[in-house]
Amino acid sequence: MAAKNETVFTKDLANKTMRITRTFNAPLTIVWRAWTDPEILDQWWAPKPWKAMTKSMDFRVGGSWLYCMQGPQGEKSWGIAEYESISILKNFSGIDSFCDEHGKKNTEIASTNWNTNFSSDGNATAVEVVMSFKSEADIQQLIDMGFQEGFKMAHGNLDDVLEK
Amino acid sequence: MRRDVFQAIADPTRREIIGLITQNPMTPNAVAESFNVSRQAISKHMKILTECGLLSYSIEGREYYYTVQTSKLKEVNDWLKPFKKHWEKKFDKLDDILANLKPKKHGRKK
User: Which residues are within 8 A (CB) of A96 and not within 5 positions of it... i.e. 6 or more apart?
Assistant: First the structure.
């Protein structure tokens, strides 16, 4: 079988964003479904050994996806994705936040803006996820909390050094 | 007090100091001249950066010349690795799922 497709990460420090791109060997309609149908999302959204479980999903502008990730010890981390724009088979965007099981957002933890783009390339589909944070303080908080899910902060020179 | 590379770069002034010294070894006075804050403040930032292992100095005559420890900076890059792993693992799972999804499957339960 073909080797795994590469997951490419790029960061744009000036704009406090990170971009993830990945090609999947499946047609656009299927890949779109995998990202927008809770039954399928639950099967892959959490990396092993975690499991994703959808409590509710309303995939439309103004709607949201309330889900949790359950760890091997049964620990649960709840998240809510609120959809701000949807363009079928092309793009959806929204805000991801930490919350409780009722979807009440934890305002102590920074939210992340998501913009997910899909583009068809024959039988393959490219997906691009752009995540952006509001401020450097938000990024720092996520690092401090150990989520390690922020962006590297630095100015040009520092970044050049890191790239070496 | 926590002293690691993340604390070192948490402060914008400290990041600028690193950026500046990356270009040339510099004395604290030379660094201070590039900022609108007090010499004491710069000196404190440089002390923290040194304690975090991001700066080191050598003494020439009566001057302390600071240089950036690039190996330490690499740690900053490394913290992205778990994040990348997280996504790679998810996408590998998704690959398997996509392989099993039939393109023309209708009538999926609502």
Answer: A79, A80, A81, A111, A112, A113, A114
Query: Does B46 map to a domain?
Result: yes
pTM exceeds 0.90:
no
Q: How many domains does chain B contain in total?
A: 1
Q: Which domains does chain A have, with CATH numbers?
A: 8-163 (3.30.530.20)
Provide the pLDDT for residue A159. Answer: 39
- Over residues B73-99, the mean pLDDT reads 78
Domain that holds residue B19: 5-73
Interface predicted TM-score (ipTM) of this complex, two decimals = 0.76
pLDDT in tens, A30-89: 999 999 999 999 999 987 778 899 999 999 999 999 999 888 888 888 999 999 999 999
CATH of the domain at B65: 1.10.10.10
CA distance A23 to chain B (A): 10
Of B20, B95, B103, the CB nearest to A24: B95
- CB interface of A with B, residues 56-115, below 8 Å: none
For B16-83, give the DSSP string.
HHHHHHHHS-B-HHHHHHTSSS-HHHHHHHHHHHHHTTSEEEEEETTEEEEEE-HHHHHHHHHTTHHH
User: Is B33 contained in some domain?
Assistant: yes
N-term to C-term CA, chain A: 33
Regarding predicted confidence, which is higher, B23 or A124?
A124
